[in-house]
Amino acid sequence: MKQEVLAEQLVDWRRDFHQYPETGFLEIRTASKVAGVLEKLGYELSLGKEVMSEADCMGKPEEQETKQHVKWALENGADKKYVEYFAEGYTGIVATLETAQPGPTIAYRFDMDALPIHESEEADHVPNQLEFRSGVANTMHACGHDSHTAIGLGLATQIAENQDKLRGTIKLIFQPAEEGTRGAKSMAEAGVVDQVDYFIASHIGTGVPHRHFVAANNGFLATSKLNITFQGVASHAGAEPQEGKNALLAAASAALNMHAIARHSNGSSRVNVGELHAGTGRNIIPDQAVLIAETRGETSEINQYVKEQVQSIVDGAAKMYQLDYQLEVAGEALNCDCSLDLAEILKQCATSHPEMDQALLESNDSAGSEDATYFMERVQRNGGLATYCIFGTELAAGHHNEKFDIHEDTLLPAVEILYQAVEKLGAKER
Ligand SMILES: [Zn+2]
Ligand SMILES: [Zn+2]
């Protein structure tokens, strides 16, 4: 495929995924299409539960929602041949290509999920002008994972077509549920990167300017997403208040105390109670309360410290009001420690690319979180190298905003830089 044709194909893929967005663990249409393309290119596929540890999937939707979504996927162009592999919401894919020459194992991670946001209906929003706006209410690719999936397929195409020139084994990982940091752990725990020498994850945008590249994005915070439910006893607020066990007060007390956790001297941390739902009526002692919260830390240890403090506070609040509670971990990610030796090679690939104005080795700017860190940590623990790179682009609005949009000219250079890295890394001794 000529590069101009590939560029058009990338745009087509990206717009198709954009029009049919699917949130975490429901990427059934998306994954089935990805699997179809990869199999045609000659990759060996491992799908669904083969590449995901069921016990380590966090924040997975209810069975009923998944079932309904399978129907939607089939009605909206899913590739029927593969839907059965993903039908229970285990939507991960690992595509492997062994070149004829011995060499290292190189892995790339691409995430596929969308967000629960209603895409802008305003006329100046480019996806409206060009008619590829999300066709699903309250669901939108507002983080660029549609373009990541397209870049992954473009890279797969370029690798397959040039495999005679390449060495080693290439693994392309298509991950579900990055949003809320829910999907990567289950794939890492299933061992999909255990033989990997070089691991590269990437993201588009994140504030990096168009035609700029960052080879090692180091600022990600470790995080835990916590769903806390207090279960009390309802009673008449006038006649028998003493018979009630007040879940609302326990939740309110926990929320205030969580925001008063002492800082850690080793680095920055965060805690946020984002939602509190409690009670059913003015004259009823509230028997139910739900807190949706998250913690973050500059290192995994600092995040663990904050998380343990939260656990003690929740436990204490429940005791204070004589309630039961449940604490569910609905997502988790580690901090990120990019291997600069690997990043240096990526930086060289970007520097030599004619459409790149600037390639930076390292940035520590990010204050978000990313669960690709599970893959990175595992690869590094086994003696491999891992990095997280950023392809700068022009954004119409920030990530997770209803007017988010990327510059599609970023897609082809991203594929070409990642492909260059396959050539360069294959030639290296491990
Ligand atoms: Zn995001
Ligand atoms: Zn993202």
Q: Can you tell me about this structure?
A:
By secondary structure, the chain is of the alpha/beta class. The chain has twelve helices and twelve strands. It has helices at residues 3-19, 28-40, 63-75, 80-86, 126-129, 145-161, 184-189, 247-258, 300-320, 340-351, 372-381, 411-426, and strands at 44-47, 93-98, 101-111, 167-175, 198-204, 212-217, 222-231, 269-278, 288-297, 324-333, 358-363, 385-391. The longest helix has 21 residues, at 300-320. Bound molecules: zinc ion (2 copies). Residues 143-145, 178, 203 line the site of one zinc ion.
How would you describe this structure in keywords?
single chain; alpha/beta; Aminopeptidase; Alpha-Beta Plaits; 2 domains; eight-stranded mixed β-sheet; four-stranded antiparallel β-sheet
